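Hi Y.,

Following your request, here is the sequence exactly as I used it, all 311 residues.
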Amino acid sequence: MLELVTTRHNPMVDPSLHVWGWEIPVYLFLGGWVAGSMIIAGYFARRGRPPGTGGVASVLPWLSLVLLSLGMGALFLDLEHKLYVWRMYLTFQPASPMSWGGWILILVYPVLLAGALASIPPDLLSGRPAIAGLAARLRNPETAGRLGTIGLVAGVALGIYTGILLSSLGARPLWSSAALGPLFLVSGLSTGAAFAHLVARDPDEQASLLRADNVFLVVELALIGLILIGLLTASAVHANAAQLLLGGPYTAVFWVFVVGLGILLPLTLQALMASHRIPHTVIAPLLVIGGGLALRFVIVSAGQYSHWISP
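Below is the corresponding structure, written out as tokens. Let me know if you'd prefer a different format.
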């Protein structure tokens, strides 16, 4: 059933096919961003700052709805059999990451809609008593906490899925790492925290998000190192795949845009901001977001360039 809607450049079907275009990296990036935002919003909801209280948790559900829809649109553009996409939702195949991802993406929407509804100011719903009543119930601390827990779980599932989708494609040795799922999850968390820090107005939230993003960036850097070490210490084919990022055609863009500008520079700036040595600046969060996008483009593109034939 899933082959009816699979992407037109699926290397598991034919490794000689043309590589994926921009759609898949954008889809993975936006999916990770939404996952990170859901986890952050869920965390604040459980800490007593749910949607509707004026914090970042009131902004993130609306943003996530837009980003998720754009990501789904990018994925739809890459599908070969667009008219048959509905058939994916007539079955569930536990062994297929694509099946898991399709259902996770659909189930995420109600959680985001609930958060968005709860964040609408009551005066804007004064003429709609039924919707206003539902929004009020969603803002109830107990309900908001439960919704935050669901958002946390859904966000983790969505974030890991974006990496597992690639690591399950065994035709590409660069992607054959169990750490790819956690890497994309942490990268999504970093992107979500960076944006939330960018729009936060509460000093406590801003400080918490800044510290959290610094931790995410350090973990992301460590996971990148583990993936490269794992490839270099595996078979010759895996070592050759790692060389694409360590002297090959993707070296410059990977180390400059992903590691340098996307992790190390914003980590340095944010560490200085956290210690109050420099004022808060929008440069660091924007660099983090750009680095997350660059990571997906590099991993997707270099992964398709790697192969199992040793030179």
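Confidence is low (pLDDT under 50) at residues 1-18.

Thanks again,
Q.
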